[in-house]
Amino acid sequence: MKINCQEEKDRIVKWLQETFKAKGFTKAVIGVSGGIDSAVVVALLAEALGKRNVFGYMLPYAKQHDLQDAKTVCDTFLEHQSIFNIKEPVDKIVVPLGEQNPLRIGNIKARIRMIYLYNQAKRLKTLVVGTGNKTEMTLGYFTLHGDGAVDLEPIAHLYKTQVKQLAQFLRVPREIVDKSPSAGLWEGQTDEEEIGLEYKTIDEYLYLSDYNPEEKEGKGIWKNEDWLKIKKMIETNKFKNEAPSSLEGIG
Q1: Strand partners for 30
Q2: How far apart are the first and last CA of the chain?
Q3: Alpha-carbon span 155 to 38, nearest angstrom
Q4: Are strands 127-128 and 80-83 parallel, antiparallel or unpaired?
């Protein structure tokens, strides 16, 4: 799963430039979480479009501990950065509903963030750029119409462990590269704890499944408990990666 980081960076930068030109845009809006994925995409956007053409928005709920890391990313790579606390709009939805489930509240937070980003994109005449990686996209580990609602995904072809390689090459601050991955949707939440597996383990199975299916069979991975957990998550969430069902095309 090791990548040539120079070649990968050049490939993504070129793709970003071509994609923005084809769509008729020169500027980008991105939500900056303080995590490794958004940091990598911010760095790539700054190189592809110029740092003055990338608008980074930090969207914490109350006093989110990742805010300082997000600010570090913006200070390192961008000229434009803004903070908008989403607590008030989120609470105006959550409180009347009497909602107490952390996962459902987290989904509301993700969707409020995307409402804000698309409003800013409309105002600034930009595209909204996503930060999803291949591991998360394959697992369906994202919020539909939340962080999954974007105009383009520059790192959706890279596994999480490959994103980390690229982050080191791009000189993303060490404290961000080394921190535990988290969506920051509730206090103490980490991706690996929520999924129940480390990204390194998940990526090894996904890579084997994608590129060496015969070896996967030879090792009996179908019966392995970790692979069964991954496979179940993929099957449960596959609807997130599908277009909405309709009667279009049906005779």
Answers
A1: 56
A2: 44
A3: 10
A4: unpaired
Q: Which residue has the tokens 């040539």?
A: 4
Contact 44, 79 (CB under 8 A): no
What pTM, to 2 d.p., does this model score?
0.91
Structure-token match 């299916």, residue found? 213
Q: Name the fold adopted by 5-197.
A: Rossmann fold (3.40.50)
Let me know the angle formed at the C-alpha of 146 by 91 and 107, rounded to the nearest 5 degrees. Answer: 45
**Cα-based torsion angle of the residue sequence 174, 84, 102, 183 in order, rounded to the nearest 10 degrees:** -20
Mind listing the pLDDT tens digit of every residue in the chain (251 residues)? 899 999 999 999 999 999 999 999 999 999 999 999 999 999 999 999 999 999 999 999 976 668 999 999 999 999 999 999 999 999 999 999 999 999 999 999 999 999 999 999 999 999 999 999 999 999 999 999 999 999 999 999 999 999 999 999 999 999 999 987 776 666 666 778 888 899 999 999 898 888 766 655 555 555 678 888 999 999 999 999 998 988 876 75
| Alpha carbon 236 to chain centroid, angstroms | 19
Helix or strand holding residue 31 (H, E): strand 28-31
Domain segments of the chain: what residues? 5-197
**CB of 44 closer than 8 Å to CB of 37:** no
Among residues 131, 138, 107, the alpha carbon closest in space to that of 233 is found at 138
- Please name the residues in contact with 147: beta carbons below 8 A apart, sequence gap of 6 or more: 31, 110, 113, 114, 130, 131, 132, 183
With contact defined as beta carbons under 8 Å apart, do 17 and 49 qualify?
yes
Measured distance CA(123)–CA(29) in Å, rounded: 11
Q: Any idea what DSSP says for residue 186?
A: S
